[in-house]
Structures are given as structure tokens and as C-alpha cells.
Amino acid sequence: MDSDSILEIITTTIHSIVPDLSDTPITASDTMSQLGLDSVERQEVVILTLEAIGLEIPLVQLRGPRTIGDLAMLLHAKRKG
Amino acid sequence: MRSAKAESAPIISGIGAATAFGYGVSTFRQALRNPGNPFGVMRRPGRQAADITFPGAELPDPPAGILAARIARTTGLTGHVAAAVLQEAWRDANLDSVAPEKIGLVIGGSNTNAREHMLTRQSYASKLHFLSPQYGHRFFDTDLCGLCTSLLPIRGFAYTLGGASASGLLAVQHAADAVRSGRVEACIALGALQDLSYFECQALRALGAMGSECRPFDQARDGFVYGECSAALVLSRSGPGYGRVLGAAHIANGNRGPEPSLDGEVRAIRMALADAGVAAEQIDYVNTHGTGSPLGDDTEVAALREAGLTHARINATKSIIGHGLSAAGAVELVAVLLQMGDGFLHPTRNLENPVAPDLHWANGESFQARTALKLSFGFGGIDTALVVGALET
User: Fold this and answer.
1) Which has the closest alpha carbon to B309: B383, B253, B373, B250?
2) CA distance A21 to chain B (A)
3) CB contact under 8 A, A47 and B131
4) CB-CB: which of A18, A47, A56 is closest to B70?
5) Which of A20, A48, A51 faces B70 most closely, judged by CB atoms?
6) Number of folded domains that form chain A
7) Fewest C-beta atoms under 10 Å: which of B1, B186, B226, B361?
């Protein structure tokens, strides 16, 4: 699974959590805050994505502001170990 | 002539309700007139385990559009129904005309989302790493405060209070106090839907509290039957409305478990009458706690005798809608107001051989109650009573 596939999982997850965004295209340079997700929703996107890619890591390793593309690349790197 | 105290007693200016018969006060009013049978084997996920099922009355799905999809996704049954009854009561009382900082919310009920919590535990039992962060705020009862105050401009205060099956009536007392003291201009009392899982149902059955058929005060009664419901009542200082909260009482009787207390019930009744400045003889209608519990019903009848209320007409709304636990007192108070407004008293369903044939069991007759007493008792030794007066016309 490459980081683009992970990015796609993240965007699908965002759309399922915030149905209002279903008509809004989401790109790698967006941040979830800019898209209007609140802190609980942002955390939920991260955890649901971890579950979807089967990655169990301490959440503290995923803290810090970053774009959706950055998050996809970080998860990709963690998954490769 | 009415006393100055009665003049200043808070008015119930708006109501909203949901029962197994459906959503809206008009549906509830119809059910009181023509009680059908809403009971059956409960089917909601988490309400049955293997070969164990429970009788009860379950609500239809909430009306579409009560919550936006984004909010609905993270809101359980209790929240959906709260939103429905709250919005109905809000419109009814025209609360848009009151400053948000002058509106309060008291939610009666604790552990109201037990079924939802159990389902969450089941789904994450084998994948705890991926537990939803939503659960981190949803397991608090205050999540319901947050939901309601995010949907409607309530900015005075909001809290939940626990009184087991007396929670709903206790919430009305607190809301009335908040208005009477001047803390807010309007205060909403919400009896929250108590969403039981099979765990609570089985424990209540083990306790001997939950029975097989809903027949309060009948000789064949064998316990209460659960019924999903919820209601919201708006307490205001003035305005048109359904009645006045003339007085109320809330006492601890010293029992830990489910045992009723004759002394406690009598004390609560007498204190509520004294608070209202009303004599027992002036009470013309009593809406009982009446669950169908063998000992509970006998004790309540004994309390009515001891408090000098045998002249009053009585009925048990739980016979029609089931026992809503945390919501019961609020929903049944709405039933009191509807009956006072319509000039009739609903029958007690399944009451064929009353435990006390000498009492005045209402039977769907026309009757204009002017001063009514509502009783609610809760596990943990909680006895509450509230006196409602008709508005002067």
C-alpha cells in the first residue's frame, strides 16, 4: 500500500465523518482544521485510518499539525516500520 | 382568592413528548384517550441475548431531519429523542423570544446510554486500539447537555441530575426552583430516555422489579414493564401555559435498594402539599408512580390513605406507555397537564381487579382536575411529589 492509497482512505474517512463535505474535493495540501473538522473528528479520522490499514501504534507518535498528505506519508512510513 | 405564592408559582409554558406511540404531544394525547397496546418483545440491538428476551414498548425511529447527518452519526437514541422533544417544547413556549443567558436546562437521568455503551464495548472488545475518541466524551451524561445546548441557544446553565425513576420529576422541581429564584427566566426540564441494554433488563428482572405484563394496581401485577419515552417541559415566570407548579418535595428515605418506604412517601406528599399551601382535600387528582410492582403499588396505596387522599381520582400512566425510568416523571407530568387541559382522566390499562377497590380509579371519564398531585419514587431511597394547579381563566 503506497501513501496515495492511504491518502485515499483518509479522504474517504473524512467524507464519511463530515457528510457536508461530500461535494468538496480534498487534496493532499489540505489540513483537517481548514476543512472544518473539530478536534474529536480529526482524532477519529486518524484512528479509523489506522484501523483501515491495520496499524497499531501509540497515538502520540502521530501528534502535531500537518497536512493530509503529510499524515498519509507518515502513516506509510510507520507501516513499513 | 389565590395567594401571592400561587401567583408567583412557575408556569409550565411548553411541552414536548415522545412515547412508544410516536413523537409529539398530540400523539401522546391521542394515546391517553385511546390506549392501544404498544408492548411486545423488545427488538432493539442490545435488548436481547441468546434465548433471553424482554417485554417492553419501543419508540419508532426519530423523525427525519431532527439532527443533521454529521451530528446524527455521533448521537444515540437518547440524544435523538431528546432533540425531538426539546425542539417541540421550545417552539411551544416560544423560547426564541427569551435571551439565551436567561434559559437553563436540567436533564433528569443518569447512565441514560447504557445500551449504546454496551454495544460500543462489544464492537471494540477485540480492537481496543481503535476505540472511537467519541466515546471519550459520550460516556459522560453531560454529553446530552452538550448536544442540547449546541442545538438550541441555551446559555444560562445545563446539568444532569440523577434520581433513578424520580429523575424526570426531580428535573421539573429543579427547573421550577431556578425560575422561582430568578436565576433564569425560563428553564427546561428534560426527562431523558433511559436506554437500557439486556444487562440492565436482566438485572432488573433478577431483582424482581421487572415483570411480564404492565398492570399497575391490579391484583395480578408482577412488576413493571419498560417503555421508551422522553419529555421536555418549559418552566417560565409568565405567559400562557398548561398549569402552575404550586409546590414540590424531594426527600431521602434511607433505603439503598428498590424497597419502597411508606414513611418516605407520606413525608414527600405532606411536604409538597405544605410547600404548595394546599390541603390534602383540595387535591382532586393523583397521578401515581404506579409501576405494577407488587410491594410498590401496595405501599403507594397505603401512602395515599395515610396522607388523606382517598377522595381523589387516581390513575397510572405507566399502564399505557410502560415505565420510562429516568423519563417517567416528566412524561407523566405531561399526561397530567393534557388531562387537566382536556377535562378528562385516562383509564389505567389492565386494571381488572384493583388492589384497593374503594379508591376512585379513573376510567376515561370527563373530569376537570383543578389541583393535581404527581408522585415519582426512585431506587436509592428517593421520594418526590409535585403539586400542579390549573391556570386561572
Assistant:
1) B373
2) 10
3) yes
4) A18
5) A20
6) 1
7) B1
Produce one character per residue of B184-202: b if its CB has 16 or more CB atoms within 10 Å, e if not: bbbbbbbbbbbbbbbebbb
Question: How far does the CA of residue A77 sit from the closest CA of chain B (Å)?
Answer: 19
- Chain A residues whose CB is inside 8 A of the B133 CB are 40, 43-44, 47
Cβ density class B121-146: b for 16+ within 10 Å, e for less: eeeeeeeeebebbbeeebeebebbbe
Residue among A19, A47, A56 whose CB faces B132 most closely = A47
Assign A53 a pLDDT band (cuts: 50, 70, 90): very high
Q: What percentage of chain B's residues is helix, strand, coil (to nearest 5)?
A: 35, 20, 40
Q: Do B132 and A19 touch (CB under 8 A)?
A: no
CATH number at residue A17: 1.10.1200.10
Inter-chain touch A40–B68, beta carbons under 8 Å: no
Per residue of chain B (393 residues), what is the pLDDT tens digit? Answer: 455 567 789 999 999 999 999 999 999 999 999 989 999 999 999 999 989 999 999 999 998 889 999 999 999 999 999 999 999 999 999 999 999 999 999 999 999 999 999 999 999 999 999 999 999 999 999 999 999 999 999 999 999 999 999 999 999 999 999 999 999 999 999 999 999 999 999 999 999 999 999 999 999 999 999 999 999 999 999 989 999 999 999 999 999 989 999 999 999 999 999 999 999 999 999 999 999 999 999 999 999 999 999 999 999 999 999 999 999 999 999 999 999 999 999 999 999 999 999 999 999 999 999 999 999 999 999 999 999 999 975
Q: What is the pLDDT of residues B172-212, one digit of tens each?
A: 999 999 999 999 999 999 999 999 999 999 999 999 999 99
Interface contact B73-A48, CB threshold 8 A: no
Per-residue b or e along A17-54, where b marks 16 or more CB atoms closer than 10 Å to that residue's CB: bbeebeeeebebebebeebebeebbbbbbbbbbbbebe
Provide the ipTM.
Answer: 0.89
pTM above 0.90, yes or no: yes
Which of A20, A44, A56 is facing B134, going by the closest CB pair? A44
Give which of B123, B134, B139 to mutate to test A binding, by max A Cβ within 10 Å: B134
Which residue range is the domain that position A27 belongs to? 3-80
